[in-house]
Amino acid sequence: MRNLREINFSLFKPDLDLNEFKFPIIIKPRFGSGSRDTLVISTKNQLKNILKNEKFKQEDFLIEEFIDGVEYGIDAAVMDGKFNHILLREKLITPIPYRQAIAYISTDKIPSVSEYMQEIIDKLNIDSALIHADIIITKDGKPFIIELATRPSGHYLSKFIEITTGINPTKEWINHSLNLPYSLKPKFRKNTIIRYFDFEGDWIEADFALLKDSLGIIEYECNISSTLTKVVDGASIMSRGYAIIEANSKEQCLINAQELISNFKRKINE
Questions:
Q1: Which residues belong to any copy of the ATP-grasp domain (predicted)?
Q2: Most confident of 16-20, 156-160, 242-246
């Protein structure tokens, strides 16, 4: 079986040989979630400055080559060692140096991704579990695994998955565990987007009641009540809320989501 992550990587350490790496690179915690302290480093001088920061000496960090391409989230289940696709979600990502998803767009199943995920499941000997994974499809069309966890997706995505596919994987897995009737097969795949509110500063929320029908807003939660900071990780965006939008195409989902964002108004300080 092929090596599923053919990149140069290392533990972050003070005596690291900077000549080992081709820039840009990614630095991220060895443990944790929510893209915490994940940074894209573009130059050797930037990395030297990072090496001086005490924060990066207090826990294990990884350095690895930056893989360019389109990033996706995967929701699936493994039953008796077999990969069962539920939903593929294309990500909209913050500009570098941070790598935080500000939106997910529902996407058709890509057979090569499912085949690749089956290789990973076989290599890791995963038997029965829900799985959440992040991958990149490189510019030459090859899938590259970022991470995988045997758990459901977070970040409000359970609602997004249910609206998009007609099933709630967590509920169905509980039924499976209790020997009750269950199904992990999607009933449909709608064109949807979940858009988080990624702006910073002082804002007044959009009039969701007014925009709901025209923009196809299926569900939303908005908690903007104070000055918003820059989006640098999951914790800095998740409490703000989200909107799930359905439209007749991926392109229209993107247009409607941007129209919603444009209806937030910046506060004018008196």
A1: 1-178
A2: 242-246
Query: Can you tell me whether residue 25 is helix, strand or coil?
Result: strand
| Residue 87 placed within a domain | yes
Q: How many domains does the chain have?
A: 2
| Tokens matching residue 54 | 């005490």
Which residues 6+ apart lie within 8 Å of 106 measured at CB? 87, 88, 89, 164, 189, 190, 191, 192, 193, 250
- Name residue 27's amino acid: I
For the residues 158-171, what does the mean pLDDT come to?
96
Across the beta sheet with 39-41, what order do the strands follow?
Answer: 9-11, 61-65, 25-29, 39-41
Handedness of CA 104, 109, 115, 117 (dihedral sign): positive
Closest by Cα among 160, 34, 168 to 105: 160
The whole-model pTM stands at 0.89
122 contacts: CB under 8 Å, gap ≥ 6: 1, 81
Q: What is the pLDDT of residues 108-119, one digit of tens each?
A: 999 999 999 999
135 C-beta neighbours (distance < 10 Å), count: 24
User: Beta partners for 3?
Assistant: none
Q: Are residues 34 and 168 in the same domain?
A: no
Q: Facing residues of 82 across strands?
A: 79
For residues 83 and 38, membership in a common domain is answered with: no
**101 close to 153: Cβ distance less than 8 angstroms:** no
Instruction: Judge if 56 and 102 occupy the same domain.
Output: no
Q: Are residues 58 and 22 in the same domain?
A: yes
Indicate whether 172 belongs to any domain. yes
In the predicted structure, residue 1 carries a pLDDT above the cut 70: no
What CATH number is associated with residue 231? 3.30.470.20
Sign of the C-alpha dihedral computed for residues 120, 121, 125 and 131 taken in this order: positive
Average pLDDT over residues 4-9: 72
* Claim to verify: residue 75 and residue 184 sit in the same structural domain: yes
